Amino acid sequence: MSEREPIARDQPLLPPEIWGLVLPSLSRTDQRSCLSVCTTFRDLARALLFSRVVIRFGMWWKARDVRFSASDLDVMKRRFAVSREVLQHIARDASFARLIRTISVRACDATLEWSHSDDFQNIINALKATPNLQSFQWYGSGPHLPSSVLDALTKTCGSTVSELDISGVLASDEDASQYLAQFQNLQTLSLAGNFLHSRISGAHSTMIETCIENAPDTIRRLSVWGDSVWATPLHLLSRLQELSLITPESLDGLGAVFAHCAQLRSLDIVTDSVECEPQMRAAFEAAPADVLPHLMSFKFICRGPDAGIEDWGPFAAFLRGRHGMRRLDLEFNAFFEDVDDYARFLDIFAALPQLEVVGLALDGGLRVFTWEHLRLLDAGLPSRTSALLLTWAFMELDDAMHMHDWAAMLGKRPSLGYVHILDGVDTLDLRDALRLDRPRALELVGYGDHVCNIGRDRETGDAVYAPRWGQEAIGFGTEVEFGCADWAWLLRSHD
Fold first, then answer.
1. Given this model, what pLDDT does residue 10 score?
2. Which InterPro entries match (predicted)?
3. Angstrom distances, CA of residue 39 to CA of 5, 9, 10, 16, 45
4. pLDDT above 80 for 202
5. b/e per residue 161-186 (b: at least 16 CB within 10 A)
6. With 0-12 CB in 10 A as exposed, 13-18 as middle and 19+ as buried, what is 202?
């Protein structure tokens, strides 16, 4: 019997192609551990861990007038030093630079204490060294995105960048349009800002319109702030697959979207216009019966003290028969007149057989949420639901109803992985109930701005919450933070 040949410590048993399929499914912590296992694991893990670089200016915080503590300032100082070192390393190390696919800048330095011209030059030098960059994001306006950065981006990565999210944060006197036309393969363009980390002022509207007018024909996903969207050329609309309209003052141009966006798969509308109801009704009534035949995702959020949708019949008619609809998020900013009104609203969701990602607002005014309400919600909430965002405004629950009754109802959804309650009246905190009676697929629970992952204690097997997410993770809420595009989409535009 021959002796076994010794196995080299630096070589895994399986070929790299197999491990290349395994490592992406590991947690970030486990991927970091792979850096020290062997050469093959290190190379695979490096490509995963360092494909995305985040650069921070300052510290994001929901309250804009917050006074930072000494420890906060120390964190900002350390983060800034790390960001500078990373950028310089990218510029020096060509092999490392080739790994970079995404650069995301989080510009939250309201005092501009942490941002100087040298730091912009570090970003420019890093961009000039990254030949494989696919996505560039600049969130926030402290500091504004300088045109010199866009210039470097187009010269080095104009043929590779497919996603550009500059959130309208160019200074109002900057002209980005000359650079946009130079991106040869740009498919995703966001000029929409964000309610939490980058609100856009009216001074940017002309700049955004010019950007859209000069956007390349390759764009398939477009997100735009304000009325600038109506400047979108018709030939560009006809090719779009995803469109987000963020707080346009008027929705009168929506008919053009219905008429020309025949390929649209996803449509998001966030509005605070007092005229949104008659304008939406007019657009629905003028649209043909087969309008947007490929639509699979629809978000309509109405916000503002004077805006609201009291008659959602036109919305129900628009959504009726859409058997391919996967995601639906509706917030009409109006309360239900009675139980029948409430039931008709839930019928919209119940009639969509493929619906999985659900956002809905339940506002009962001063009424009590009864067992009948819960029964109707159970009947209307699809069994396939994988994510639920509930904007809640019932002032009182039936005295005989307990939070575990809600958990039991939600537990009937075997694929439910994410539940988030936005409770403006403090009557529906399900965190303890969902921990004690955890739905089997549940991974993430949110209550207001309190978000935690949920798992099992290895020793007891009991459900436990992980540490609370930081303010920055919630505020930016990208797919990277959530680990799921559907979950990030669901919370988006809810503040």
1. 56
2. F-box-like_dom_sf, LRR_dom_sf
3. 20, 10, 6, 10, 10
4. no
5. bbbbbbbbbbeeebebbebbebbeeb
6. exposed
